[in-house]
User: Which sequence fits this backbone?
C-alpha cells in the first residue's frame, strides 16, 4: 500500500517558482495542496502520473528533478 506524507511548507522554498510570500504560486498549485496550516501534500499520489502530466513536462529539467526528489524522499510512504 502506498500513501503520502505531508511536508513542511518551507520545503518548497528550495524549488523555484512554487511559493511566493509564503503562499503557493499558480505553478505551485498545479502540484501541491494545503494539508493543514503548516504542511502541503502533492496532488499526485503516484510518481508515474506526476511524470506523465502536462504540467510536469512543461517545467524545466531542474524543477522536474527537484519535484521528483521531493516526491521520492519526503512524500511517499509504503506499507508492506
Assistant:
Amino acid at each position: 500500500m502506498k500513501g503520502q506524507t505531508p511536508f513542511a511548507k518551507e520545503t518548497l522554498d528550495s524549488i523555484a517558482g512554487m511559493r511566493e510570500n509564503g503562499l503557493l504560486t499558480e505553478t505551485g498549485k498545479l502540484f501541491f495542496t494545503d494539508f493543514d496550516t503548516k504542511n502541503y501534500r502533492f496532488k499526485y499520489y503516484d510518481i508515474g502520473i506526476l511524470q506523465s502530466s502536462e504540467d510536469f513536462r512543461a517545467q524545466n529539467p531542474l524543477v522536474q528533478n527537484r519535484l521528483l526528489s521531493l516526491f521520492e524522499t519526503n512524500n511517499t510512504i509504503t506499507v508492506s
In short: The helical segments are 26-31, 47-52, 54-57, 61-74. The first strand starts at residue 2 and ends at 3.
